[in-house]
């Protein structure tokens, strides 16, 4: 089956080659009495070059050979014969024949070389990402798995007597390690979804207040040494967003803040309704939902802010661990909902992530009044 398809493809290329040269020749023939035949030679050379950019080598060589014959037969006097009457035209014909062949061959080789370079670049990028993934996951996955296995071995050991209090602590450690492991696996799955382009936002009415507190409840162990503040207007309307994607976005941002800010730092979540057109970004875009996640930690190095949303990127002086996927997933999930995410440092210290969405709005206050 593959050989038949290949034969059909090659036959089509030969047909394209012959038809292209004949069509250009006919067009040039109409101007033969008004233009020098050398112009027809240049045009035919250009046609051979264009064919060499898209066809295989044999159809290209056929077009070069056919162009030379047509040039002699139709454009070099005496017409409609392969006889050439003078040395100048003979030299022109020979040079045209050689140049057409060389041009076709070289153009085809350049195209093949470019394809090989592209394949090598893709392979290199793939291996680079693969190595980065292995390096980051070697710590991030091994640590929680080791913690889980160690706690289970201690609980099941027949040679060690463990009090109920210590057992509860070990169970708590297993739960924390399991949640951390689940978080890393979720990030990997989400990144694979983004890479494959299968993310489709399922828009529904979303209560931002409920969203915030669900995320904070899931991260209560990671946030126990931080001050958390939620600032939301009690009359904030519902926004049409993908709740699942939004939960992962806020989770990654808050988790990131909990891991990379010192103990005692404040993490603040806020949401506002903004029905004003943002002319600085897009005059046709209505940013109705603005969410910010900020902290008063150390902030980000100014020279690295533009790179923090890149896949597998980790700050140069950050602590060990982390896969560098969390913020790239945030960016991908925000953009899947036609939103925009920005990052900037605060003058007083710390950082601010700003999420803006052109979401539909439902005012619950008006509904309750009705």
From TrEMBL:
Q: Where is the organism placed in the taxonomic lineage, from the top?
A: Bacteria, Pseudomonadati, Bacteroidota, Flavobacteriia, Flavobacteriales
Origin organism is Flavobacterium sufflavum
The catalytic activity, as recorded, is: ATP + protein L-histidine = ADP + protein N-phospho-L-histidine
Q: Where is the Histidine kinase domain?
A: 136-361
* Subcellular localization: Membrane
Under the cellular component aspect of Gene Ontology, which terms does the record hold?
A: plasma membrane
* InterPro entries cross-referenced by the UniProt entry: HATPase_C_sf, HATPase_dom, His_kinase_dom, HisK_dim/P_dom, HisK_dim/P_sf, Histidine_kinase_KdpD, KdpD_sf, KdpD_TM
| Entry EC no(s) | 2.7.13.3
Per UniProt, what is the membrane topology? Answer: Multi-pass membrane protein
Q: What is this protein called?
A: histidine kinase
**Which CDD domains does its entry note?**
HATPase, HisKA
Concerning Pfam families, the annotation shows: DUF4118, HATPase_c, HisKA
């Amino acid at each position: 089956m593959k050989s038949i398809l290949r034969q059909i493809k090659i036959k089509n290329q030969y047909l394209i080659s012959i038809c292209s040269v004949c069509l250009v020749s006919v067009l040039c023939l109409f101007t033969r009495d008004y233009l020098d035949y050398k112009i027809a030679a240049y045009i035919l050379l250009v046609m051979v070059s264009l064919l060499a950019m898209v066809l295989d080598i044999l159809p290209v060589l056929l077009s070069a050979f056919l162009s030379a014959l047509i040039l002699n037969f139709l454009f070099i006097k005496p017409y409609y014969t392969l006889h050439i009457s003078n040395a100048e035209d003979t030299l022109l014909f020979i040079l045209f024949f050689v140049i057409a062949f060389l041009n076709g061959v070289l153009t085809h080789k350049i195209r093949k070389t470019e394809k090989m370079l592209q394949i090598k670049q893709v392979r290199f990028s793939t291996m680079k990402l693969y190595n980065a993934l292995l390096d980051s996951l070697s710590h991030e996955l091994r640590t929680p798995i080791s913690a889980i296995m160690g706690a289970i071995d201690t609980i099941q050991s027949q040679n060690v007597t463990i009090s109920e209090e210590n057992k509860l602590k070990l169970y708590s450690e297993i739960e924390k390690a399991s949640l951390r492991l689940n978080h890393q696996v979720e990030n990997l799955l989400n990144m694979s979804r983004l890479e494959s382009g299968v993310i489709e936002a399922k828009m529904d009415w979303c209560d931002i207040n409920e969203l915030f507190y669900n995320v904070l409840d899931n991260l209560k162990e990671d946030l126990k040494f931080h001050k958390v503040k939620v600032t939301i207007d009690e009359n904030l309307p519902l926004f049409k967003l993908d709740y699942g994607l939004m939960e992962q976005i806020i989770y990654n941002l808050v988790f990131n803040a909990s891991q990379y800010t010192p103990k005692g730092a404040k993490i603040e979540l806020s949401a506002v309704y903004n029905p004003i057109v943002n002319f600085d970004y897009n005059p046709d875009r209505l940013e109705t939902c603005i969410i910010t996640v900020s902290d008063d930690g150390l902030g980000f190095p100014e020279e690295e802010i533009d790179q923090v949303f890149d896949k597998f990127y980790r700050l140069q002086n950050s602590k060990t661990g982390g896969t560098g996927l969390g913020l790239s997933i945030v960016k991908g999930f925000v953009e899947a909902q036609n939103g925009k995410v920005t990052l900037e440092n605060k003058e007083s210290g710390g950082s601010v992530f700003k999420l803006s969405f052109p979401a539909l709005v439902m005012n619950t206050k008006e509904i309750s009044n009705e």
